[in-house]
């Protein structure tokens, strides 16, 4: 059987994680898919900076969409554009796609999923929501009979790391942020993380998945962690509480309600003990009750793991028989 040929859009932190994981897990991927997996093409803005990659580097998306040998496209670009336009063209060209782009997918996910159905290809987006936690696949494929009543989650590893450092090391916000940047957990411009935009985008993706719609974005309260002081942290410690940056979504009287904000959690709350860069999601369901999933929420490999798991779902033996109609994640 011929190799599965992969195109990779972007070769930043996440893209490099995907490339590394595919290369180091060839035997495992062959066991799952029945084929070898080859990253054959890289779409990179500045190919001269990545001369060491083993494959063809291109700057024009048409090189990928017009190549019939490319089977699947991994997208690891930052921002809504050109990621959305690229994925749209890839789907229209009959390519399966997998994305980690939460901002783009929060805005365009519904359109891309519908487009994938029309063109009989699969789209994976588990990596858009909570790092290495397979929450999308969990809701889609495990919690089918259960109605999800409410979700409370820590969806951003950077803010969770900062709040943990402020408490454990008595650090000021600015010092904890600088430490997060030095460790690669926060970008040079950390606005998306510390102001709650990243968690907001992820929450909107979950809303679309759970309720098949999103609330009006202007109605969602979004408060970051920049105003949290050492005094706030200390006062919460006196009452055995911890400040966590919580994204919540639920339905009330037929309306979807959502918010992203710092919350003082008591010791018995399921998200109280989630520390460092970890993410966690607490799901309240009507049959099972409460379920909490925890996992790494920042860094290249957790995101790469989620993308590779989507890939395996698409190309597993079951999906190979059905991939002309199945849309995963």
Q: Can you walk through the features of this model?
A:
This protein has 2 domains: 4-131 and 301-322, Rossmann fold, CATH 3.40.50; 136-297, Dihydrodipicolinate Reductase, domain 2 (2-Layer Sandwich). The chain has 13 helices and 12 strands. β4 (72-75), α4 (83-92) and β5 form a beta-alpha-beta unit. By secondary structure, the chain is an alpha/beta fold. The strands form 2 sheets. A 6-stranded parallel sheet has the order 3-2-1-4-5-6, with helices on both faces. A 6-stranded mixed sheet has the order 8-10-9-7-11-12. α4 runs parallel beside α5 (102-118) and α7 packs across α8.
Write the layout of secondary structure elements.
Elements: E1 4-9, H1 13-24, H2 26-33, E2 37-43, E3 56-58, H3 62-65, E4 72-75, H4 83-92, E5 96-99, H5 102-118, E6 123-124, H6 135-142, E7 148-154, H7 157-168, H8 173-182, H9 191-194, H10 197-211, E8 221-222, H11 230-238, E9 241-252, E10 255-266, E11 278-285, E12 290-296, H12 300-315, H13 317-322
Helix pairs in contact: 1-12, 4-5, 5-10, 7-8
Protein traits:
Rossmann fold, HDH_cat, amino-acid biosynthesis, alpha/beta, methionine biosynthesis, disordered C terminus, six-stranded mixed beta sheet, 329 residues, globular, HDH_CS, six-stranded parallel beta sheet, Dihydrodipicolinate Reductase, domain 2
């Amino acid at each position: 059987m011929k190799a599965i040929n992969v195109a990779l859009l972007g070769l930043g932190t996440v893209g490099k994680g995907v490339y590394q994981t595919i290369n180091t897990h060839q035997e495992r991927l062959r066991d799952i898919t029945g084929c070898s997996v080859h990253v054959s093409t890289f779409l990179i803005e500045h190919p001269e900076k990545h001369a060491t990659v083993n494959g063809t580097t291109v700057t024009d998306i048409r090189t990928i969409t017009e190549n019939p040998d490319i089977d699947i496209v991994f997208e690891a670009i930052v921002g809504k554009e050109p990621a959305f336009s690229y994925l749209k063209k890839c789907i229209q060209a009959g390519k399966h796609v997998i994305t980690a782009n939460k901002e783009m997918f929060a805005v365009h996910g519904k359109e891309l999923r519908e487009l994938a159905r029309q063109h009989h290809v699969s789209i994976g987006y588990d990596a858009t929501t909570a790092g290495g936690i397979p929450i999308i696949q969990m809701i889609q494929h495990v919690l089918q009979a259960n109605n999800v009543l409410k979700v409370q989650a820590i969806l951003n590893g950077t803010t969770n790391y900062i709040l943990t450092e402020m408490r454990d090391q008595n650090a000021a916000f600015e010092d904890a942020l600088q430490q997060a940047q030095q460790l690669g957990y926060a970008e040079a411009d950390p606005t998306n993380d510390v102001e709650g935009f990243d968690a907001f985008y992820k929450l909107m993706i979950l809303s679309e998945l759970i309720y098949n719609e999103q609330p009006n974005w202007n109605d969602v309260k979004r408060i970051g962690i920049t105003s949290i002081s050492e005094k706030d942290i200390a006062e919460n410690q006196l009452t055995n509480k911890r400040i966590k940056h919580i994204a919540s979504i639920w339905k009330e009287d037929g309306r979807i309600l959502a918010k992203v904000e710092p919350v003082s959690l008591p010791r018995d709350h399921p998200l109280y003990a989630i520390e460092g860069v970890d993410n966690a999601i607490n799901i309240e369901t009507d049959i099972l009750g409460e379920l909490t999933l925890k996992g790494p929420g920042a860094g290249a490999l957790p995101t790469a793991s989620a993308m590779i798991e989507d890939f395996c779902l698409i190309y597993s033996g079951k999906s190979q028989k059905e991939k002309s109609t199945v849309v995963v994640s």
